[in-house]
Amino acid sequence: MSSIPLPATQRDCMSAAAKRWKYFRKIFKFEQMDFEFAFWQMLYLFISPQKVYRNFHYRKQTKSQFARDDPAFLLLFAAWLCVTSIGFAIVLKLSFLQFIHFLLYTIFVDCIIIGILVATFFWFILNRYCRKKDEVQDVEWGYTFDVHLNAFFPPLVLLHFFQLFFYNGLISHEWFISRLLGNTFWLVAVLYYIYITFLGYSSLNFLRYTHLVISPIPLVIIFYIVTLVSGFNITHSLMDFYKYRVV
Asked: What transmembrane ranges does the database entry give (predicted)?
């Protein structure tokens, strides 16, 4: 009996460890990275995030994985963290050593450690409870981490870049307009994160219950209204926290 050849997507399938090794092996080979395409993805995360996830599906068809196999996006993301951290150091009047402390904290705690925790949470929940019945395909951990980076990038630019231009002149005061502007920045950033995360998982047709990702939105809006009424300036409070943890 002649054997039936496996489809290319199964034949070329690698283990998770092999995929990680291939990914990190390229991290210092800049000539092999597509920085132009990574920049395009960052732009479209603001204006049309659906197009970014369409590309993830193309990658699954051609390379047997949803997760990125090119670390260019991660390196550009790290570069943005460095640039925005310089802005924070200027706004908060940090010394050079405090700036280094702040940068390392932002990269390794705010981005990597929290990113790993969030990605692992979604990876476990989605594979355990949200896969359709009798579905063989699972959600890759690398993909959940990519979804987190995608969702984290617009808030990073909004909160750690654009917001800084308004902080000392307006947001840092006790006026209502200060609270309104600062808290609105945070509202838009959180809604961006939730929406892009939802797009990432709802685009996988073998998952169910993905609408639950957007279920916290009413609570976020209620919290936003409460902060305005109660006089709580989110940006001002978190700036104090950022400065406290590096002083």
From this structure: 73-96, 102-126, 147-166, 186-207, 219-239
